Amino acid sequence: MALLKFVFLGLAGVGIAFLPVTVSFAQSLSTNPARFTAMTCQQLWYVEQQTLAEGRVCLQSERAKRAFSRADRCISSNEKILPAKAQNYLGQLRQVGRQKGCAGF
Q1: What is the rounded distance in angstroms from the CA atom of residue 77 to the CA atom of residue 58?
Q2: Model confidence over 74-92: pLDDT tens digits?
Q3: Which of 34, 33, 28 lies closest to 52, judged by CA?
């Protein structure tokens, strides 16, 4: 059984909502950013999409939706719902993807 913690999100005009986020979200940040340069474009894409899916950000591409079809239901298309640590992690990953010339980064 997955452990849960609660994230507080302010909803405009509605008040505060309590949304459970599984502890497994931390697992998507388990790849050390120092290893990003050694990863293929495919691997970078997968880690990016995994991080978004586990953070409950709605995935955009059909490929990502199929790859993470068993992920918890998304709650927003806005990545700003992610903790700052996850946003920074994605920023580092995407920078490496751009430097490598990976499509989509």
Answers
A1: 5
A2: 999 999 999 999 999 999 9
A3: 28
Q: What is the pLDDT of residues 30-68, one digit of tens each?
A: 899 999 999 999 999 999 999 999 999 999 999 999 999
Q: Is 9 helix (H, G, I), strand (E, B) or coil?
A: strand
Q: Where are the domains of the chain?
A: 23-100
C-alpha–C-alpha distance, residues 21 and 18, integer Å: 10
Please name which of 59, 50, 42 lies closest in space to residue 22, comparing C-alpha atoms: 50
pTM to 2 decimal places: 0.75
N residues, the chain: 105
Please check whether residue 102 is in contact with residue 45, taking contact to mean a CB–CB distance below 8 angstroms. Answer: yes
48/92 Cα distance (integer angstroms): 10
